Amino acid sequence: MYDTFAMGRVYAEVRENGRGLWALFDTGSKNTYITQAGAAKIPQRVIPEPRRVGLGGRIRTSDRICDFTAYIQEKSVDIQAFVTDELGTDESGRPIEILFGALAMQQWHIRVIPDEERLDLTHYPEEFIEY
Description:
Layout: E1 9-16, E2 19-26, E3 33-35, E4 44-55, E5 58-72, E6 75-84, E7 98-100, H1 102-107, E8 111-113, E9 118-120
Parallel strand pairs: 2-7, 3-6
Antiparallel strand pairs: 1-2, 3-7, 4-5, 5-6, 8-9
C-alpha cells in the first residue's frame, strides 16, 4: 500500500470538457481548488458559509463550489472543487488552474512521484465496491 499523504507535488495537464487545465497535485493540501477562470464554463453553486484558506502565500476566500469530471492520463475523475480567484504560478511562471488535494487523490488512488515528476494511476479504481 502506498501513502497518499506523504508530502509531494507534481504538475500535470488535466482535461475538462475538451480543454486543458494546468494542475498542481499537492499532497500537502487537503481540498481541491479551481480558479475562477478554470471554472468559467462549469456550473457553480454558492456555499452557505464562505471558506477561508491559505493558498499561494495569501489568505483567500471561496464562496462557491463546483463539480466536474476531469481526465487525467485518459482516466475520468469526478472532482468537487472550491472556486477561488487565483492559485499562483508554477516555478516557470505558468498559472496553476487547479490545485488537486489529498482527499481527491486518495479517493481516486492517484499517487505523486515527486522524484520523477509524474503521477501514478496504476491503482485507479475500475469499479467501486461499496458494500
